[in-house]
Design goal:
By secondary structure, the chain is of the alpha+beta class. It has two domains: about 240 residues, Up-down Bundle (Substrate Binding Domain Of Dnak, Chain:A, Domain 2), CATH 1.20.1270; about 55 residues, SH3 type barrels. Helices cover about 70% and strands about 10% of the residues. It is built from seven helices and five strands; from the N terminus they run H-H-H-H-H-H-H-E-E-E-E-E. A five-stranded antiparallel beta sheet has the order 4-3-2-1-5, covered by helices on one side. The longest helix is centred in the middle third of the chain and has 72 residues. The radius of gyration is 38 Å and the shape is rod-shaped. About 20% of the residues are buried. Keywords: SH3 domain. One of its GO terms (cellular component) is membrane. InterPro entries: AH/BAR_dom_sf, BAR_dom, Endophilin_SH3RF, SH3-like_dom_sf, SH3_domain. Belongs to the endophilin family. This is Endophilin-B1.
């Protein structure tokens, strides 16, 4: 107990000396030991690395998981080392609603079928997005977070210890200057040598850690390359899914969309003969055009061909069997 009390008194005295030293430094009434120029430069560069890494990490997390509540929930599950909940993302919600709507309208109708197809595509995109977020988290977010929670926290801790050692050193220097007798001066000089040794040793420790921080940028660069590769794959997969969707919708409707009433009126205004599709027809070769039941298309006669009309839909042209069409105008 006596030993602990002595230690407590000694620690309290040291803390008081640091407070006095800091106060006098603030007032400009005492000198302050400056750090080595190389160490100062390393510390400044490490601070810059920490600041920008934190900012990029926050921005990346916001991009990958826009909902702040979800980010907090995910972080909580990471802290307790449990699997994250498998929640639906926005694309999957959209896809689910489109499929429900398509089934309600009737998958046998052109619009209902298109909605179901589109909804399935949105769900695929949602899963692709989930896979990308998982990959990006593993290859980029987690390494950066580990760097901040590991190396940078250690550096900050050791820098704080260095500052404490620096205050102890300057406090000893102040005591040497203010010593009033030989005995007091000898005691102060002995404490000064010890404080200088501890300060120098801590400075070397910090310097090694700071150099390690700068070398970690090579690892961050590898993470950046991996993230770019993951993002490239993500957009390529999304592009492929959308191309498949375009082809599938074109196959369902015979074109990018059904002819609306406005388009029908435009055909009439152009003096073009029109026909309503009585039954869906799939083109059998490139010379034909696929059509969907109830679609309205423009038509014209084909010389020497009594079985087909030339169907016209925007820039598309192709033969359509006459038996599938009901004409609006009498052709001449």
């Amino acid at each position: 107990m006596d030993f602990n009390m002595k230690k407590l008194v000694k620690d309290a005295g040291a803390a008081l000396s640091r407070v006095v030293q800091m106060t006098e430094e603030t007032l400009g009434t005492t000198e302050k030991t400056e750090l080595d120029a190389h160490l100062e430069d390393l510390a400044e560069r490490a601070t810059t690395t920490k600041t920008w890494t934190e900012k990029m990490l926050r921005n990346m997390e916001a991009v990958l998981t826009p909902n702040p509540g979800n980010r907090i929930e995910d972080l909580f599950y990471e802290k307790i080392d449990k699997k994250k909940p498998n929640r639906l993302n926005n694309l999957e919600y959209v896809g689910h609603d489109m499929i429900e709507a398509g089934n309600d309208f009737g998958p046998g109708t052109a619009y209902g079928n298109a909605l179901v197809t589109m909804g399935q595509c949105e769900q695929k995109l949602g899963q692709i997005e989930k896979d990308f977020i998982g990959t990006a988290s593993n290859c980029y977010i987690q390494p950066l977070r580990k760097f901040l929670d590991g190396e940078m926290k250690t550096v900050s801790k050791e820098l704080a210890i260095l500052e404490t050692k620096r205050l102890d050193l300057d406090s000893c220097k102040r005591r040497v200057r203010k010593a009033r007798n030989m005995l007091g001066q000898q005691s102060a000089e002995r404490d000064l040598r010890i404080a200088q040794s501890e300060f120098d040793r801590q400075g070397e420790i910090v310097k090694l850690l700071l150099e390690g921080v700068l070398s970690s940028q090579a690892g961050h660069l590898r993470c950046l390359h991996e993230f770019v590769e993951a993002q490239t794959r993500h957009y390529a997969q999304c592009h492929a899914v959308m191309q498949d969707l375009q082809r599938e919708l074109a196959g369902l409707s015979g074109g990018p969309y059904h002819t609306s009433s406005a388009a029908t009126n435009a055909l009439a205004e152009n003096g073009q003969d029109r026909a309503r599709v009585l039954c869906s027809y799939d083109a059998r070769d490139p010379s034909e055009m696929s059509v969907v039941q109830d679609e309205v298309i423009g038509i014209c006669e084909i010389p020497d061909d009594e079985d087909y009309f030339m169907g016209i839909r925007g820039n598309q042209r192709g033969k359509v069997p006459k038996v599938y069409l009901e004409t609006f105008n009498i052709l001449h």
